[in-house]
Amino acid sequence: MPPDDAVPTGGQLDEDHPPETNGRMAVCRRCGSRTDDPAGSHHVPAERQLDRVRDWLAAESKRLDIKRALEARR
Ligand SMILES: [Zn+2]
């Protein structure tokens, strides 16, 4: 695992989910990251988006932890 303060990459987002664009803008509507093109096959977060992407990934992994914990309790 990379350290928490590692710079997030588009690859981490790609692993989490495929980019969801509206087909006209190169932006993923799920995480807000820029994508490589309007069809969106890869995330390419802009430098100013990196803090936001890191927060998004942290929130997403917390959400998954909570979901797993809830499922394990059943
Ligand atoms: Zn995304």
What would you say this structure looks like, in words?
By secondary structure, the protein is mainly α. It is built from two helices and no strands. It binds zinc ion (ZN). Zinc ion binds next to loops.
Features:
74 residues; mainly alpha; 2 helices; 42% helix; binds zinc ion
Order of helices and strands: HH
Radius of gyration: 14 Å
* Relative strand content: under 5%
Helix content: 40-55%
Low-confidence stretches: none
Overall mean pLDDT score? Answer: 91
Tell me, briefly, the overall form: globular
**Number of helices, where a helix is a run of at least 4 consecutive DSSP H or I residues:** 2
Briefly note the structural class of the backbone: mainly alpha
Bound compounds, please?
A: zinc ion
Distance between the termini: 29 Å
Number of domains in the coordinates? Answer: 1
How would you sum up this structure in a few lines?
By secondary structure, the chain is an all-alpha fold. Helices cover 42% and strands 0% of the residues.
SSE diagram, text form:
Layout: H1 10-16, H2 50-73
The chain binds zinc ion.
